[in-house]
Amino acid sequence: MALLNHYQQKLAEAGCDEAGRGCYAGPVFAAAVILPADFEHPDLNDSKQLKETRRYELRPFIEKHALAWAVASVSSVEIDRINILQASFLAMHLAVDQLKLQPGLLLIDGNRFRPYKNIPHQCVVKGDGIYASIAAASILAKTYRDDYMTRLHDDFPHYQWKDNKGYGTAVHREAIERFGLCEYHRRSFQINPLQQPVMFED
What we know:
globular; five-stranded mixed beta sheet; Nucleotidyltransferase, domain 5
């Protein structure tokens, strides 16, 4: 099914999505994207439905053709301080702050959001598989976060973040059991090395 370009047609819309909410380690990233009315790409979809190579192919296309886009992050320290849900909202707010065009409406992936200034918002459950702007935001948030975690891997190779990106895979949990937590782990999460692996979801 083709993604929809607009929720409504009177106001400029910014699609917003986050990546890394369910991770044991690293920041949560968010992106905000305003697309033109005629934006089209046959492969655009929810980032979770795309292979990694396709996400990275789509990123420069989105950045080139979007009217405005921005990516922001909130650290693991801040996540521990305010909780992951509020940190996800904050990351989206920070991304919207950076947009070179002010949207008239925010399309939010999910069922909850903390209002941003005086801009109305619409929450859309599984919106990254419905609206093009949210799908585009999901791809930017995911790829920029993956890049960040891959860079961290060089300093903490035993956690295998280049492969698991901070999610609770068996390898990651075994490394936590052996080496303990590092400065990038989220202390507020109940990390039990014996629990089942966490799926790669956002």
